[in-house]
Write a structure and sequence with these properties.
Distance between the termini of chain B: 23 Å
Oligomer: heterotrimer
Chains: A mainly alpha (237), B alpha/beta (271), C mainly alpha (430)
Largest sheet of chain A: none
Helix content of chain B: 25-40%
Order of helices and strands of chain A: HHHHHHH
CATH architecture of chain A: Up-down Bundle
Largest sheet of chain B: 6 strands, mixed
Structural class of chain A: mainly alpha
Chain lengths: 237, 271, 430
C-alpha cells in the first residue's frame, strides 16, 4: 500500500489497523496450533489456556471494529483506503471465528481425553491442522505483502484440506461402526476435524478479502472444493 | 452544558494527560448585535494543545464565539459581549487586559487568505517587529525562518522571500498567514474557516499543518465542513441558533453524538 | 412525480415569438453601443473645437516680432557703479534711430518712428547690461520687441489693405517697418517672455511669470493645508468616530460643503482671512487658504472612499496579530489607500488651480509687474490673469489670452500626468 497521505495521522491510523490485524492473526494461529496439540496430547492445561486466549482475540476484534468506524467517520476514506478499512473489518471477523473454532476444539479435549485419542486418528487430525495452519500462516504473510497473485493461489489450495477432511470423516465413521464405545470420542473428533476444516475456509476467505483489497475486484469463479464429506455414507457390509 | 463532564471514551488516544487543562474558558457568554442576540449563555472550554472545532449551520454563532476569544468583536460598533471569557484564568474582557497583548497571545487566521501586500518576509516579520520581539536583524531573520518552517512553507519560499506575498497560490497564502500568526508566538490560534477558499489539496496541506501545530499551540477552528472538523480536531462543539448544543470528543461526536440535533446536523438531516 | 418534475415546461426555442424577442434584445444592445459611441464623438468633438480655436487664436502669441540693435556701449562712457542712473533713454533712442536711418527726421516723425518699438526698450537694455556688465566694454547686439501694432502687422493681423485712417499704423510707419525688414534685423523668435515675463500694460512685454508664481504659491499653501487636514479628518471619521447622530450630521455637512459654489468660499475668505485676521490682500497665502477650504470637502470624501475601499481583511489581519489601530492605519490601510488619495488630491488641486471666482474676491486680480517670491507677495494667478487679459483692450492681449489658457491647460495636463505617474509608482511597490 502506497502510504503517503497528506494527512500523516491517517497513515498512522491505517498502520494501527494493520498491526492489530497482524497481531490477531498471530494469536489465532497460536490458538489453533495449541488446541490441536492439547487434543493430541490430551493436555487439558493447554486447552484451558486456549479457551482463555479467545477473550483476547474477541476484544481485539471489537477494537478493530471501533477504530475502523472512527477512521471512516473522521477520514471519509475512498477507493483503496476504503477497501483497506472494510477489508480489515472482514479479516478481523474471520480471525475471530478462527479463534472461536480453536476454542471449540480446546473444549472438546476434556471430553475426548477420558478414552484417549487413537494414535492413527490423532496423526490424521494433526496433519489436517498442519495444512490449515500453513494456509493461515501464508495468508497472513500475504496480508503484509498484499500480493494479489499469492492470494489467488492460496485460495486455490483449499482443495487439499477438503480432501484430507473427507478421508478423516470416512475413517471416523469406520471406527464408530467397529465399536459403539468409540462413538462419543469419535463424534467429538469429527467436530474437531470439521473445526479445522472451517479454519481453512476462513483462511481462504481472508485470501479473497486480500485479493479484493489489492485489486478492487472480487476473485473470479467459485472457489475449488473437494469437500465430499457431505455425500459420504456408511459403507455397506 | 456537558463541557465539564468527563467522558469515558476520552483519554484512550486523544490526550495522555488524565486531567484536561483548560487554556480558555467561556462562562455564560452572550453576544448582542444591537437588539439582536447572537449567542445565548455559551459555556465552552478550550483545552491546552488541542484542536477544538466549532461546527454548526450558517448563522449559528460559531464565528461570533470565536471572535469573542480575541476580542475581534470590539471592532464591530454595536456588538456587546456579556459573560466571562478567561485565558489562563484571567478575564480577557477585564479592563486591566490590554487588547493588543491579548491579540498577540491569541492569534487569528481568517477565512480568506489575507497577506499584506508586501513581501513574504515583511508579512512574517511585521508582527515580531511591532511587538519588538527581535533584538537584531539576524534575530528577526531567525524568527521569520522558523515561523515559515512551522507553517510548512519555508522550502517553497526560501528563495523568494522578497517577492510579494500576494503572488503566492491560495493555499500558500493561507499558510503564509498562519506563519504570520505563528511569528508572534501566540498561545492560542483562532482559525475562522481557514480552508473555505482553498482547493482540496491545499485544504489537506493546511489541515495537516493544523494537526502538526497542535503540539505547540492551542487551536480553535470554525468550519462549515463537518468532515474537516472530523479530520483535524480532537474536540468538537456544535452550535445551533446561538446555543451550544453539544461539546465532546470528536470521535464521539462523529460516531455517536449525545444530542439528536447534533446527529441530525452531521448526518445531513437538518431542518 | 415530484413537484419539480411536474413544473418542467418544454420551450420551443425556434418559435417566431422567441426569435422576434431575441432580435429585439440584440437591437437594444446595438442601440446602447451606438449611444455610447455618439456621446464619445460628441465630447471629443467639443474638446477638439475648444483646443482648436484656442490654438488658432493663441499660437501667434508664442512668437514675438523683435529687432536686433547693435549698441556700442564702450563709447557711452557710463559709470559701472551708477548704471541705474545712467541716461539709457537717449542712448537707446539713438541706437534705434540709427538702425532705421531715421536720425535726420523731424522730431514728430522721429516720435512716430520710435512708436514702432516697445516703450520700455531703454529699460530692457539697461537690465541686460546690469545682468552682464561685460557688455559695457564693446559693441553688442540687443533684442528689442516691436510694439503691439507692429507685432500684429508683422503677424498679418493688421492688413495693409485697410484704409490708413482705420488702422493703428500709418503708411509712413509701414514704410519704416519694411525698411527694417529689408535690412534683415527683424525676426520672430519663440516668445519666452510669455512665460518668463511678469504682467505688463504692453502686450509685447506681458508674460505669465507673475500668474504662474502666484498660482504656484497658492497651490503649495492649498496642498500644505488641505492634504494633512483632509486625511486626518477622513481617518478620524472613517476609523475612529462612533456612528451616531453627530457624525452623521458632520458627514452630511461635508457632502453639502463639497457642493457649495466656489464664489461663496471667496466671500468667506474675504470676510475671515482679510477682515478678521487681517492677512494681506492679493497674497497667495489667502488664495491658498480659500482654495484649501474649497478643496477640503472633496478631499475628505475621496480619502474616506479610498480608506473604505481597502479590504477589511487587511485591517483584520493587522489587528489579528496584535497591531494597534494606529499601526493598522498607518502601516497598512493608508499606504494602500494612498494611490487613490493621491489621484484625488491632485485632481482636486487641478480644480483649485483653475478656480477664478474666489481669487477675484480676495483681490488676486491685482496688476503686478513682478513675480511673487513668497506666499505674502501680492500676485495674480493663472485663471485671474486670463480674466484680466481677456478684459484688456489691446489687440495683442486677444492672442495672449488664448495662449494663457493653453498654458493653464498644459499645467492641468501635467498635473494629471503626475497623478497617473504617482499612482502607478505606488502600485508597483506592492
Amino acid at each position: 500500500m502506497a502510504s503517503n497521505h497528506i494527512y500523516s495521522a491517517f497513515d498512522e491510523e491505517l498502520k494501527y489497523l494493520q498491526s492489530r490485524i497482524s497481531e490477531m492473526g498471530g494469536l489465532a494461529e497460536q490458538m489453533v496450533s495449541e488446541a490441536v496439540q492439547a487434543l493430541v496430547n490430551s493436555n487439558t492445561e493447554l486447552a484451558q489456556k486456549v479457551i482463555a486466549d479467545d477473550a483476547k482475540l474477541d476484544s481485539a476484534e471489537r477494537e478493530v471494529g471501533d477504530k475502523a468506524i472512527i477512521v471512516i467517520a473522521r477520514r471519509q476514506p475512498v477507493a483503496a483506503d476504503l477497501r483497506e478499512i472494510i477489508g480489515s473489518l472482514r479479516i478481523a471477523a474471520d480471525l475471530e471465528r478462527v479463534g472461536d473454532l480453536g476454542k471449540n476444539t480446546a473444549k472438546r479435549v476434556i471430553a475426548v481425553q477420558e478414552n484417549g485419542v487413537p494414535r492413527k486418528l490423532a496423526r490424521g487430525i494433526e496433519h489436517l491442522s498442519e495444512l490449515a495452519l500453513i494456509q493461515l500462516k501464508e495468508v497472513l504473510d500475504v496480508y503484509t505483502t498484499r500480493s494479489a497473485e499469492k492470494a489467488k493461489s492460496i485460495r486455490e489450495r483449499d482443495e487439499e484440506i477438503d480432501a484430507m477432511y473427507t478421508s478423516i470423516f470416512r475413517e471416523l465413521l469406520t471406527y464408530m461402526m467397529e465399536d459403539p464405545r468409540n462413538i462419543t470420542p469419535c463424534t467429538h473428533l469429527l467436530f474437531c476435524a470439521k473445526n479445522i476444516e472451517r479454519i481453512g475456509d476462513h483462511a481462504t476467505n481472508i485470501a479473497e478479502t486480500i485479493y479484493y483489497m489489492a485489486t478492487g475486484a472480487q476473485p473470479e469463479g467459485d472457489r475449488p472444493k473437494d469437500d465430499t464429506a457431505n455425500s459420504v455414507v456408511t459403507p455397506k457390509e | 452544558m456537558n463541557m465539564m463532564a468527563e467522558t469515558t471514551t476520552e483519554a484512550k488516544q486523544v490526550q495522555p494527560m488524565s486531567e484536561p487543562s483548560f487554556k480558555m474558558l467561556g462562562r455564560n457568554v452572550s453576544v448582542h448585535y444591537g437588539a439582536k442576540q447572537a449567542l445565548f449563555n455559551v459555556n465552552l472550554a478550550v483545552r491546552q494543545n488541542t484542536v477544538t472545532a466549532l461546527i454548526g449551520p450558517s448563522g449559528c454563532g460559531k464565528s461570533t464565539f470565536l471572535r469573542c476569544l480575541n476580542r475581534m468583536n470590539d471592532t464591530i460598533d454595536n456588538c456587546r459581549v456579556s459573560g466571562e471569557i478567561t485565558l489562563d484564568g484571567q478575564d480577557i474582557y477585564d479592563a486591566a487586559i490590554d487588547v493588543v497583548e491579548l491579540r498577540a497571545r491569541v492569534g487569528m487566521v481568517f477565512q480568506k487568505p489575507n497577506p499584506f501586500p508586501k513581501s513574504i518576509y515583511e508579512n512574517v516579520a511585521y508582527g515580531p517587529r511591532i511587538h519588538g520581539l527581535a533584538r537584531s536583524r539576524a534575530d528577526l531573520d531567525q524568527i521569520v525562518e522558523t515561523s515559515l518552517q512551522k507553517a510548512g512553507l519555508w522550502s517553497e519560499v526560501k528563495d523568494r522571500l522578497n517577492e510579494p506575498g500576494t503572488g503566492l497560490s491560495g493555499g500558500q497564502q493561507q499558510r503564509l498567514c498562519i506563519a504570520r500568526a505563528v511569528a508572534v508566538s501566540p498561545e492560542v490560534i483562532l482559525m475562522d474557516e481557514p480552508c473555505s477558499a482553498l482547493d482540496p489539496i491545499a485544504t489537506a496541506r493546511v489541515e495537516e499543518l493544523i494537526h502538526e501545530l497542535r503540539s505547540n499551540f492551542t487551536i480553535v477552528i470554525v468550519t462549515h465542513s463537518m468532515q474537516q472538523a472530523a479530520r483535524v480536531s480532537q474536540r468538537t462543539a456544535m452550535f445551533h441558533l446561538g446555543n451550544l448544543v453539544e461539546e465532546n470528543d470528536t470521535d464521539k461526536i462523529f460516531t455517536n453524538p449525545d444530542e439528536q440535533r447534533t446527529q441530525d446536523y452531521i448526518m445531513g438531516r437538518f431542518g | 412525480m415530484s413537484a419539480v418534475q411536474q413544473n418542467v415546461q418544454t420551450v420551443d426555442w425556434h418559435s417566431d415569438a422567441i426569435k422576434a424577442r431575441r432580435k429585439s434584445r440584440y437591437a437594444a444592445e446595438t442601440r446602447l453601443k451606438a449611444y455610447g459611441l455618439i456621446a464619445i464623438v460628441f465630447a471629443l468633438g467639443f474638446l477638439t473645437i475648444l483646443i482648436g480655436s484656442l490654438t488658432v487664436k493663441g499660437y501667434k502669441a508664442f512668437e514675438q516680432t523683435v529687432v536686433s540693435v547693435e549698441i556700442d556701449l564702450a563709447t557711452s562712457g557710463f559709470d559701472r557703479d551708477k548704471l541705474m542712473d545712467a541716461n539709457w533713454k537717449s542712448l537707446v533712442k539713438k541706437a534705434l534711430l540709427e538702425v532705421g536711418g531715421a536720425e535726420s527726421l523731424k522730431k514728430k516723425e522721429q516720435k512716430a518712428y520710435l512708436d514702432m518699438f516697445t516703450d520700455n526698450a531703454a529699460y530692457l537694455v539697461r537690465d541686460q547690461v546690469i545682468a552682464d556688465p561685460a557688455r559695457l566694454s564693446g559693441k553688442s547686439s540687443f533684442v528689442i520687441p516691436l510694439s503691439d501694432p507692429f507685432d500684429q502687422l508683422a503677424k498679418g493681423e493688421i492688413s495693409r489693405d485697410t484704409p490708413e485712417d482705420q488702422r493703428r499704423v500709418n503708411d509712413r510707419q509701414i514704410a519704416a517697418f519694411d525698411q527694417l525688414v529689408a535690412k534683415g534685423v527683424v525676426s520672430k523668435p519663440f516668445n519666452w517672455g510669455l512665460i518668463f515675463n511678469a504682467d505688463s500694460r504692453f502686450p509685447e512685454l506681458a508674460g505669465l511669470a507673475g500668474a504662474i508664481s502666484g498660482s504656484f504659491w497658492s497651490i503649495v499653501v492649498c496642498f500644505a493645508i488641505s492634504f494633512p487636514v483632509g486625511i486626518a479628518a477622513a481617518i478620524y471619521l472613517e476609523e475612529f468616530a462612533p456612528k451616531n447622530r453627530w457624525t452623521d450630521l458632520i458627514e452630511i455637512n461635508i457632502n453639502n460643503l463639497a457642493a457649495v459654489p466656489s464664489v461663496v468660499f471667496g466671500l468667506l475668505g474675504l470676510a475671515v482671512f482679510l477682515g478678521w485676521f487681517g492677512l494681506p490682500r492679493s497674497a497667495p497665502l489667502v488664495g491658498g487658504l480659500v482654495l484649501a477650504l474649497m478643496t477640503l470637502p472633496t478631499l475628505i470624501i475621496v480619502t474616506r472612499v479610498s480608506l473604505k475601499s481597502v479590504p477589511s481583511s487587511i485591517r483584520e489581519a493587522a489587528l489579528g496579530i496584535g497591531a494597534s489601530k494606529h499601526e493598522a492605519i498607518f502601516h497598512h490601510i493608508l499606504p494602500l489607500a494612498m494611490p487613490t488619495v493621491m489621484t484625488g488630491t491632485i485632481i482636486s488641486l487641478a480644480r483649485a488651480l483653475g478656480e477664478t471666482a474666489p481669487l477675484l474676491l480676495i483681490g488676486m486680480n491685482a496688476f503686478m509687474t513682478s513675480t511673487a517670491h513668497g506666499v505674502f507677495d501680492a500676485s495674480t494667478a493663472l485663471p485671474t490673469q486670463i480674466y484680466i487679459w481677456s478684459d484688456s483692450p489691446e489687440r495683442g492681449f486677444v492672442s495672449r489670452t488664448s495662449a494663457a489658457i493653453l498654458v493653464l491647460l498644459a499645467f492641468l495636463v501635467l498635473m494629471n500626468g503626475i497623478a497617473i505617474f504617482l499612482r502607478q509608482r505606488f502600485e508597483r511597490r506592492w
